[in-house]
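Appendix B. Chain record.
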Amino acid sequence: MMQPILEKYFLAHSQLVLPGIGYLNLNQTDAFCDNDQFQPPVHKIELDINMASTTKPSKLFYIYLSDHLDCTVEQAIINYTSFFTNQLATSNKIDLGNLGHLNITNDTYTFESNYNSAHYFQPIHLEKVQIEDQSENNFNTKSKYWWILPLIIASIAILAILLK
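Structure tokens predicted for this chain:
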């Protein structure tokens, strides 16, 4: 039950604090054009373990969690920490659902992401398009005598009204 809530929070805030471990961040690189190819944007979920011992989620995170778990903030804190301790007690792997897996070997944390943006975005090859000379086509040419036809129709209409 905790995994879908953590996934929603991560998608909304592009960051998830893992207590005592570090941060999961969504790093984004914008698309760019290189050698006649349009390179797609790159999105990666990465683990940042700088200052891991002092890493604590914010109060706003716990309020978000308590709203979705329908419990008090204190109970949300207990549930969140027990989520990690229960998984670590059974194995050296923390399952974060669709986000990925956090592996622990010899006090070293590694993150295996389930999200690969290359499955969704592919490079696009750009080709030069030859533009035709539009003056040869009659689509864009305007007649200087456009007013003659409406004048003839108007004069016939006036004659028809007068001769009636």
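Further analysis of this model is presented in Appendix C.
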